[in-house]
């Protein structure tokens, strides 16, 4: 997989320079490239306890992204997923430690423990007061004598950072964060492994599976489970955490492992807020990418039974963008629509033949979802099938509320339903189509005449005409042939849709931004949907 880097050997040094260069002068780095890569606060005066953390790179924004007032004093960056050297850690300690001393915050991996531990001993030989805590919050592998340190480390960073900023002593900070470590529990899940720069991707997790409890360096988890949806994934994670949570209110940290979209993380936050442990969760940090694993498509949840003092420390302001802050978890607030926007529903009425017909149309569009998405990926954003299928599902669900026996009112009701449930420009256009068809039907036009009137209005507002490579290229000829027979309409729709594959320029829709090479040979997905609808209705 191609990545945005120069050489794999320089990716960490290049990244460190990028972090420092864009810090607005708040950060600096020590000399000693490429072996010593230490990011430090540029305003540090050594009057307070210094906080030094770090480890392998690839977990950005951890650790350098958390260097700043109220958090870390320095971060020591190793190679990707590799501990920094003893000399690099020692350089960081010596650079920032004054009479108040230094706390090393280390994740529980052998390399980090050894290198940070030896550096601490050597710093003590220089006469410095150095303490070290080891974070072991991962509960994925309960039989291991040494649990891994993962995203729960951020609780330690923030609480220690707030205490140090307030002038607490090294002993006070050390004792406090040891209690934090003891109470912090974390587990993660991913749908895929990460891609280490310059190395082939390990295809360990099969399609349709998720791995529970994998490490932040891509280490195998405790088990692979069948993946169905976000709710099931969050339930599996929370089930593991539940057995480790005591009484009292907890703060959760919802961490993006690097490759999960912001949209997906919001869905996971929703599932966490109604999970089996939701009753014990009062506050949340995130969702955000905080301790990542390169591009891993996963997430982790950390929980900690915060005291009032802990919550105060976690809530202390910091200017660092990497720290998302603490927020309360509350029920979703729903406000009434403003006057005039609340839909006025026509009286529902039953008509068995119309119900069967509409349901059949919806089922046809649902069945085409994947094929239409593939077509749309060639000339758009790959969601035409999903958009139409979503609208079809919504129509089926609302069937009992529709005026099925009054086709004039039904057209208008369909337009109203689509305007609310169907996204994108296609939803608006089809809403216009059915609303105009309803107006035409109320004036006495036949079904075909009403549908043609709807199409004319849709074209007028949408701006698409025959030959513009849209659904109009199939719908217009189909309606022209509909009075002859449904078979003729289906044949005309298919001819119109197929013709769009020969058009190398689109004059409307997202395909208008695509070059000729990408369009040629690919049918417009909207036209294809119309053609398939008529073909299936013809039988």
Widest sheet: strand ordering: 9-8-7-12-10-11-13
Spatial extent as radius of gyration: 30 Å
Instruction: Write the CATH fold name of the largest domain.
Output: Rossmann fold
Give the helix proportion (percent range).
40-55%
Terminal-residue CA separation:
46 Å
Main structural class? alpha/beta
Regions with pLDDT < 50 over 5+ consecutive residues? 510-516
* Share of residues in strands: 5-15%
The tally of helices reads: 18
Number of domains: 2
How would you sum up this structure, described in words?
The protein has helices spanning 11-21, 86-96, 110-125, 153-165, 170-183, 230-242, 262-273, 308-315, 352-367, 369-379, 384-397, 407-421, 424-442, 447-462, 472-481, 486-500, 516-519, 525-538, and strands at 27-29, 38-41, 50-57, 74-80, 102-107, 130-135, 185-190, 209-212, 223-226, 250-256, 281-288, 298-304, 326-328. It contains 18 helices and 13 strands. The protein is α/β, with parallel strands linked by helices. It has a seven-stranded mixed sheet with strand order 9-8-7-12-10-11-13, with helices on both faces. It has a six-stranded mixed sheet with strand order 1-2-4-3-5-6, sandwiched between helices. The protein has two domains: 8-328, Rossmann fold; 352-538, Serine Threonine Protein Phosphatase 5, Tetratricopeptide repeat (Alpha Horseshoe). The two termini are 46 Å apart. β5 (102-107), α3 and β6 (130-135) form a beta-alpha-beta unit. The longest helix has 19 residues, at 424-442. The chain is elongated. Helices cover 43% and strands 14% of the residues. InterPro entries: DhaK_dom, DhaL_dom, DhaL_dom_sf, Dihydroxyacetone_Kinase. Residues 352-539 form the DhaL domain. One of its GO terms (molecular function) is ATP binding. One of its GO terms (biological process) is glycerol catabolic process. Its EC number is 2.7.1.29.
């Amino acid at each position: 997989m191609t990545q945005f880097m120069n050489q794999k050997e320089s990716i960490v040094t290049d990244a460190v320079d990028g972090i420092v260069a864009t810090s607005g002068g708040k950060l600096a780095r020590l000399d000693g490239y490429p072996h010593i890569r230490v990011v430090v606060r540029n305003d540090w005066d050594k009057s307070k306890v210094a906080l030094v953390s770090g480890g392998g790179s690839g977990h950005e924004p951890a650790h350098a992204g958390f260097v700043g007032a109220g958090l870390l004093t320095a971060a020591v960056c190793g190679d990707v997923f590799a501990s920094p050297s003893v000399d690099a850690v020692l350089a960081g300690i010596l650079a920032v430690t004054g009479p108040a001393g230094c706390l090393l915050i280390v994740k529980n991996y052998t390399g980090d423990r050894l290198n940070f531990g030896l550096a601490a001993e050597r710093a003590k030989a220089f006469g410095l007061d150095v303490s070290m805590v080891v974070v072991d919050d991962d509960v994925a592998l309960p039989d291991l004598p040494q649990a891994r340190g993962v995203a729960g480390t951020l609780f330690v960073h923030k609480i220690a950072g707030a205490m140090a900023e307030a002038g607490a002593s090294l002993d006070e900070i050390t004792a406090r964060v040891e209690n934090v470590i003891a109470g912090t529990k974390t587990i993660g899940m991913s749908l895929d492994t990460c891609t280490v720069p310059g190395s082939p991707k390990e295809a360990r997790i099969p399609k349709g599976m998720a791995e529970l409890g994998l490490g932040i360096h891509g280490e195998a988890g405790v088990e692979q489970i069948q993946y169905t949806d976000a709710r099931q994934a969050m339930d599996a994670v929370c089930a593991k955490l539940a057995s480790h949570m005591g009484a009292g209110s907890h703060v959760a940290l919802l961490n993006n492992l690097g490759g999960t979209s912001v949209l997906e993380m919001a869905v996971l936050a929703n599932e966490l807020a109604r999970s089996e442990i939701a009753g014990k969760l009062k506050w949340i940090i995130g969702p955000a990418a905080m301790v990542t694993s390169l591009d891993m498509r996963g997430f982790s949840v950390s929980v900690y039974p915060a005291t009032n003092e802990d919550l105060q420390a976690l809530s202390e302001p910091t200017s660092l963008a990497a720290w998302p802050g603490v927020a309360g978890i509350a029920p979703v607030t729903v406000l009434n629509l403003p006057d005039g926007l609340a839909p006025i529903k026509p009286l529902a009425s039953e008509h068995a033949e119309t119900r069967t017909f509409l349901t059949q149309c919806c089922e046809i569009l649902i069945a085409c979802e994947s094929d239409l998405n593939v077509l749309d990926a060639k000339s758009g954003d790959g969601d035409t099938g999903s958009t139409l299928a979503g609208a079809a599902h919504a129509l089926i669900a609302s069937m009992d509320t529709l005026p099925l026996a009054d086709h004039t009112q039904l057209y208008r009701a369909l337009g109203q339903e689509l305007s609310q449930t169907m996204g994108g420009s296609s939803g608006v256009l089809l809403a216009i189509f059915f609303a105009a068809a309803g107006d035409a039907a109320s004036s006495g036009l036949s079904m075909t005449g009403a549908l043609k009137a709807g199409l004319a209005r849709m074209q007028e507002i949408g701006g698409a005409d025959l030959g513009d490579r849209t659904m109009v290229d199939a719908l217009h000829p189909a309606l022209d042939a509909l009075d002859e027979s449904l078979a003729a309409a289906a044949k005309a729709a298919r001819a119109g849709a197929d013709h769009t594959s020969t058009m190398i320029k689109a004059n409307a829709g997202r395909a208008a931004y695509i070059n000729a090479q990408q369009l040629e040979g690919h049918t417009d997905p909207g036209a294809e949907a119309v053609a398939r609808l008529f073909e299936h209705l013809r039988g």
